[in-house]
From TrEMBL:
Keywords: Disulfide bond, FAD, Flavoprotein, NAD, NADP, Nucleotide-binding, Oxidoreductase, Redox-active center, Selenocysteine. It is an enzyme of class 1 (oxidoreductase). Disulfide bonds join 75-80. Belongs to the class-I pyridine nucleotide-disulfide oxidoreductase family. One of its GO terms (molecular function) is flavin adenine dinucleotide binding. Residues 392-503 form the Pyridine nucleotide-disulphide oxidoreductase dimerisation domain. This is thioredoxin-disulfide reductase (NADPH). It comes from Acrasis kona. Coiled coil: none annotated. The active site is at 493 (proton acceptor).
Amino acid sequence: MGAVIKPPKAVMTGPVDTHLPETGHGFDYDLIVIGGGSGGLACSKAAAELGAKVAILDFVKPSPQGTRWGLGGTCVNVGCIPKKLMHTAGIVGERLAESYHFGWNVVEEDAMNELSAKKEKFSWERLVENVQNYIHGLNFKYKVDLRSNKVEYLNALGEFLDAHTIQATDIKGNKKKMTARRFVLATGGRPVFPQEVENAEQLAISSDDLFSLDREPGKTLCVGASYVSLECAGFLTAIGNDVTVMIRSIPLRGFDEQSATMIVSHMSDHGTKILQPWAPSKLTKVGEKIQVDYYNVNTKETASDTFDTVFFAVGRYPDVKGLGLENLELKLSPSGKIQVDEFERTSVPHIYAIGDIVAGGIELTPVAIQCGKLLATRLYNSSTKKMDYINVPTTVFTPLEYGAVGLSEEAAVSKYGKDNLNIYSKSFNILEYQLPHREDQGFVKLICVKSENEKVVGFHYLGPNAGEVTQGVAIAVKLSATKQDFDDTVGIHPVCAEVFTTLRLGQTEDSGC
Ligand code: FAD
Ligand code: NDP
């Protein structure tokens, strides 16, 4: 095939494009998915399971530092999975240091709290090797999964030649034309290196490089104040590096501000240096080190310091490079993301987009997966169900983990008005921290709307296992649970999350167990 077929301009009314037949359409495939990350893999497998003839293309453009990886996208290779494993390395180190108080004669607790002692006891190379071996196993498993789901996989870059034809180019430059009745774009995002910071792209690394770095990062500057920067700064500190986080404005923009402030002060108490409100202006190579010139964004005062590693985590740009979108009439948002309607349809009726590439979406793996599966069932199983972006839970894996679902206090006040809210918040002791005499406390907050029977519209939890706790509570919030429902729920003792069953207005401290 490969003929230029101009898509109709008609606006669709249903969840599925119907301008072409589902069978006998004459294209090579029913569906081609471009991008083999969280969203693309989920969508392609679900569509194939429902009987569609599907191909998926995945190709990783090397990072500016030359890092490449295998099938599975950001989450598996350079995101959630290596990040959570390295976060765990930090937690394991903490536990090791505390084990003395639980009777173990394994390490001298005080010595383990010193950076130099941690360095002696910790092997970055072994951690990276084990993490990478695990990831390689997942890369292989994803290939097998695709094969057993009858999805044809090509390790090739997809580029649109016209609205129904793509060119797949593999790493050796071999090219193949492929046509399909429908396409799903799931090409995700890549880390930004700010253009205004001289030599940032040449001398710094990003999350694309960190988890496979062949040397210990050492003295590290983490630029940025959201998930990636804080999570990576947290575990790098915990495993014994001298780490500074450079925050230009506020930490964790969009999160509950009180909770975000507590996260950063916990990091600061545990050895991460915080520079706020500062931003870098220039990087210069000085021998093996990198000199960073930076400035105070309020006073314009300048300063400089040298680091072994400079790590930029200042957001991600949509990865549309090389997709050939200029050959389509496809609408992009001002930030370059793909505009879709509530059914993930782009402005070209038979081309859909899911995951991080979508304008107005949420950059999280389970969101990309859910969108991909729902799209496949709408396309190939007559479903009309669409993605619900309300009450998507999330967890920031900083050393003190932070789980949240629903609104921050600031967003709730602006939506419902301060007088219409009851805000229950409390610090609590963590039982496991008591024998090692750790002073860190957990913190919880429930935001309830008075005029709606105290419906819970915001949940915030700082403490161990925040992801596990928040995942459970998210179901209750999704089901419109009220404060009374939380009160009526019997706690599990002795766990941190039981605090949610005993919250009272005005009671801000709990002695816990
Ligand atoms: P991706 O997973 O990015 O996949 C896109 C794929 O398409 C990539 O393999 C890309 O190389 C490929 N591609 C691009 N262009 C082309 C082309 N033209 N042809 C062929 N292939 C192409 N989310 C969470 O929920 N929990 C976490 O703990 C978490 N931690 C994270 C930690 C870090 C450091 C980062 C960076 C992200 C993290 N995320 C986390 C976010 C999560 O990884 C993303 O939301 C998710 O991977 C998005 O999936 P996707 O399918 O949209 O894109
Ligand atoms: P975000 O877009 O979330 O945040 C960018 C951060 O960088 C902000 O703090 C921003 O500050 C700062 N920043 C932007 N530009 C500059 C600059 N030029 N100089 C200094 N600072 C700058 O990006 P992330 O890379 O942290 O994360 C991307 C997405 O990946 C997240 O939004 C999240 O959805 C997902 N993710 C999820 C995780 C999880 O679920 N645990 C973990 C990691 C990532 P300002 O506020 O001032 O703009």
